[in-house]
Amino acid sequence: MTNNNAVIFDVTADSFMTDVIEKSHQVPVLLDFWADWCEPCKNLTPILHAVVEKHPDALVLAQVDADKEQMLAQQMGIQSLPTVALLKSGQIIDNFMGVKSESELTTWLSQHIELNEVAKEPVLDDNVQDMIDAGQFEEALSALLVLPHETAVWKIIEVHLLMNDVPAAQKLYAGLSDQQLKMPEADIAKAKIQLAAVEANDELTEFKQQIAQGDVETAVVGLLELLQKDITDANVKQLLVASFGLLGDAKLAAQYRRRMGSILN
């Protein structure tokens, strides 16, 4: 997890005084202690990023890898991961452990700082969605390509997948900026590309259709049953991994990942 932009950055013991304590006299600092092995941390990170990126003038996010900075974590009294603290004027004014949803995190922050959300990007023209719903994919692509790329790229990926052009979708995903890759849309796009790339027999095709229609959890339960019967089936594994990203619930996804892990172990 490497971040070097103005509002989200990594912190070490050497940079802590400058990047956290001194910085907090200028702007509130959200301090996140995480570790690569920590599943709740992986669920919380994109939520923290999303909130900070929506309010770039209100606060910054400083991230500490607790495995690499064990002494710093001990000095800060970190007992479990993730732990998040909010600092102002060199002092911790509040903290929490575990995962919060975006709305919960925003409510928690609003108790201490004023959040001014940046203007939202323009919404895609309703006509484009009408074209997609009608199966007019070429027309939809033409309309999307004249829009700002950062606004339209997610829908362009979706249309390529609807046209069964997985390589085109993969190429677009590979060209995303570091900032775009931190967005929740990137995780969804990645999962959809993985889903489209799975080679499916008749049985798996039914599961893919089920997922595409939004009944993701039912499909996941069925796929886990298939995996129990044959833990070597790479297509079932790939379809499961893709489906986790489309559940729309980080805690639920983590629960099913653990179930998959227990089956494979």
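Above is the first protein from milestone M3; the second protein from the same milestone is given next.
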Amino acid sequence: MPDVAIIGVGLHPFGRFPGKTALAMGAEAARAALADAGLSWTDIQFAVGGSYEVDQPDSVVAELGLTGIQFTNVYNGCATAGSALAVASQVIRLGEHEVGLVLGMDKHDPGAFTAAPDQYGCPDWYGELGLFLTTKFFGMKINRYMHDHGITAETLAATAAKNYQNGSLNPFAYRRKPLSPAEILNSPMLNYPLTQYMFCSPDEGAAAAIVCRADLARQLTSQRPVYLRSVVTRTRRYGAFEVHTPSAAPSALQVPAPTVDAAATAYEQAGVSPAEVDIAQLQDTDAGAEVIHLAECGLCRDGEQNELIASGATTLGGRLPVNTDGGLIANGEPVGASGLRQVRELVVQLRGQAGPRQVAGQPRIALAQLYGAPGVAAVSILSV
């Protein structure tokens, strides 16, 4: 049996909530996860929180109760939630505590992410050329991938349309209006080849999970436990074509992306193969990212995405449903919460509790993948 189980999940809706703080949203998500597990705040022995905007996520104890709990704050770009989950699992595996809370929250202004290049180890000229704006890089990355592997714009549009459709079935999603591939293709071009409706939007929200020692799960809750088989984070290696290192090395020296490294280790630790994955949540900062991450996670080969996506394999009724809650494209990305939203969706799917989004059959093995600047990835494997 794996060492760690997830016994409760909670989510604050993603979107825009004027006048509501990220901490208040975080407290709501935490209470929802506690209620899901059938536990109270005083049952929680430790917590790990992640956020980009909130300096001290542990301040949520002012909303939940001042119990003197051990609380560790984590930030690791878009991989923050995966990193928080990794820290929490290590606390349990090391025997320090038995029951904990993993919490993510954020409240972002509209618009693409950008920052001072020198804060990410990049020279000033990198920003002066506009390459530090995330939309521009992601456009550049998928444009190159399309050139190398024959991916079409229609595949990008179908990917985004699938996520909008899934989001229309998700009451917690930010964008809940289905869009057709034609509407997506014909929306304004932002960074070629990515149009407006192929991108996600930074927004607001929170998500939480209750984790425990696996052998205690059935004693602590009446919910069906979901087991955390592995959670792995990796950064970029020299030669990888990543968010802030597009020209670090000649093409002959290019090495696998951090997602490839993280996924390979996650599969090995979990004792499963990519062919055994029944359902996945992939980082779809843009439609191209989801297409690329399908191959980087070993769920298909480079260049197979056109046929795979056209066949409907990644839809709710397909053989490998991806981003069943709408992913980032429908939900937006409050960075600290986004990965725990993925986990929450996989947990309810593995329990068979996803309602109109429930995938066909009974999934048993799930994968969650995160990726962000400056080239960091996290991959988790869950099972029932």
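Note on the second protein: Residues 317 and 360 are 6 Å apart (CA to CA).
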